[in-house]
Fold Metallo-beta-lactamase domain-containing protein.
Amino acid sequence: MASFKSSLSITHIGTATAVLHIDNINLLTDPFFSPAGAKWPITEDFALEVTEDPALRMDQLPPIDAVLLSHEDHPDNLDHLGRQLLDGRHVFTTVDGAKNLAPRPAVRGMKPWETTTVLLGGAEYTITATPCQHVPGDECVGFILTTERFGCHDDGRPNAIWFTGDTVKIDDFARIPEQFHIVVAIMNLGSAFGPSPDGKPLQITMDGKQAASLFHSLGAEHLVPMHYESWGHFTQMGNDLKSAFKEGGVEEKVRWLTPGESVTIL
């Protein structure tokens, strides 16, 4: 990774919401800013409720250059406050998400493995959408970022930063290390469960064991956990995650975020 010339720090705001400070630009992931106690009914007998306030208010954010929105149709990834931050900014999301967020001309809907480029802060970034397996029937994507200043691995693969989006581990992820050297993997975890079509609980985000296994298969260098606190449908939180990472042999590779503080990763 000697050729990686960029800097990366991350300010975690809550759930899957964070600011990625890359050199002179700021990317925002899955904007959610509702206060503790906010609820969203999902079914007649199931509601999402957030238990903690966001670490930063919207008026405390730095200027945002672009938004990486894994999916627009779940309130814990995009709430009514976060939608205000989409106006007039580059937004990358799912194909359905782009349709549902129209008319916003700078919103780009992406299919899994589709690639696009964007000029931010004077540098060209390449963004590749990655597949997710989340809630049946709903679209969700992750995002791999590369740029010239990230450089390449010794074997020629471009160095990259990956934001997984909401997903469990899937076989399709085997394509990633074939094409990219993941320097930093920002993973949405929590082992969240939701209702399935047959009414049984369905795991919809990774647990620590899956995350550790995925990290090893990627050959990645740093693991940044997010999306494991503040919600009742999450079943594996901080201490349990730490135990899983230790058992999975990745604890020394994990970079824990402190809400509201900029944590230097690279």
User: Anything to note?
Assistant: The chain has one domain: 8-264. Residues 8-264 form a domain with the Metallo-beta-lactamase; Chain A fold (CATH 3.60.15.10).
